[in-house]
Fold this protein.
Amino acid sequence: TGFDSDNSSGDFSEANHKSPEMLDLDPHQSNRNGKHNGETEIQENGIKRHRTSLPAPMFSRSDFSVWSILKKCIGLELSKITMPIVFNEPLSFLQRITEYMEHIYLINKACSHADPLERMQAVAAFAVSAVASQWERTGKPFNPLLGETYELTREDLGFRFISEQVSHHPPISAFYSEGLNKDFIFHGSIYPKLKFWGKSIEAEPRGTITLELLKHNEAYTWTNPTCCVHNVIIGKLWLEQYGVVEIVNHSTGDKCVLNFKPCGLFGKELHRVEGYIQDKHRKKLCVIYGKWTECLWCTDPTTYETYKKSEKRGGEPKKKSVSEEDIKSENDEADDMPEVQDTVQFIPGSKLLWRINCRPPNSSQMYNFTSFAVSLNELEKGMEAILAPTDCRLRPDIRNMENGNMDVASKEKERLEEKQRAARKERAKDEVEWHTRWFHQGTNPYTGTPDWLYSGGYFDRNFSDCPDIY
C-alpha cells in the first residue's frame, strides 16, 4: 500500500517497524485530494494509497474435492493438468512472483550498509521474506499464457518490475526489476516442477535468482526452497517450505547457507529456518535463525553455540515475547496438521533482521492475501491506455474471478486455453517459431548457467508487435 513495509534507512528494530494498522498518520498530512477508480486515493504528499480489499470475497472450496481431479495424476508433471478455477486465486503466477518485492526495504538496507556482512544479512532476510507471502496461500495462481506480461511501478517503494511468460512447456517465467534510484537490479527465471505424491503437491524450485547491488558492485545468487502443500485429499490444506538455500556473494566469496527445515514427525521444526554466513575461507561470521512465517534473527556463532549447549544441559530457553495475534496464529493449526505451540526461541543479544507484515483483518476472505498482494491486480483509471495488451490485469478470467463471477471466469479460462492451443497448432502448421518480446535466452554472468535475460525497452511502451493472447 506504500505503508506496508518499513522503508526507513535507519537500523531495523521492533520499535521502528510498524504494520499498516500501527501507523500513526497525521490527519493534516493525509488529506485526500483525488481518487482513481473509486478506490485508489492520492494523498497531499503525492503518495498513492492502493485498495485494501478485493471486489468480492473468496469463493468457498468446501464443496469441491481436489482428489477427484488428482487421483489419476500421482507422480505426473502437474503443469499439463487442467484444474477447475475454484482451486485458483485471482492472480497470475507472474503477479505471485512480483510479491518478492513486498519487503523491498531489505534491499534498500543492503544498499545502505558499508559492511559486507550486514549487506549479506539483509540479502538473506530478503531471500526468506520472498517466500513469506505464501504462508497459508493454498490457492493456485493462474498459469500464465505464453507471452503474458506483468508490470508494476511503485514510486513510493522505489522500484519498477516487468515479467514475461517466455515458455509454455515447460512453463518458464522471467522477471526483471530495478531501483528507481539506479541502486539495484533484481532478476531471474523460475520454472517450478510440480508433482503430486498422493497426499501432497510438491513444487521443486528451478531457476536462478540474482540480486545486483550496483553501488557496491556486488552480485548475489540463490534458488528458492521446495514448497509443499499437504492434505490435498482430506483435511485442512497446509504449506511448508524445505531444503537448503545457498546465497553466494560473487564479489567477496561470502556465502549464506539457510536450511529450511521440514516439519518432522511431531512438527517440532515446522517453518523453521537456520543457517549461517561464512567468508571465502569458510569461517563462520554469524548464525541466522527464525521462521519464514514469522521473523529472522542473527547472532554471533559463539553466543549461538553457548546457548545450544545450555539448552542441551536442560537450561531454560528464553523466548521472545509475542503478541496475542502471533500466539493465536501458532495455536490455531488444524487437527491434522502438526501442532506447534512455541514461537521462535530468542537468544539474548540477537539482532532482528526481518519480521513479517501483519495481514489485513479480512485476509482470510481474500485468499489470505497480504496488503501488497491485494493491490497487484488493481486496474486504475487510465491504466489500460498505457499497459501492454498482454498484461495480467487485462486477463478476463482473472478479472471475473476477482469480481466473484465464477461461471464467467471459468468459461473465459477455457476460452483462453483453447485460443492458446489453436495458436500453437497454427504456428506448428506454418513452421513458425515463437519469439519472446522482452527477454532472451542467455547465460547468467555470475553462475555460468542458462538463464533468461531482460532485453530492455519495455518502458519505452512500444507495444505494436505484442501478441493477441486475450
Remarks:
- Residues 37 and 66 are 37 Å apart (CA to CA).
- The first strand starts at residue 32 and ends at 36.
- The first helix runs from residue 67 to 70.
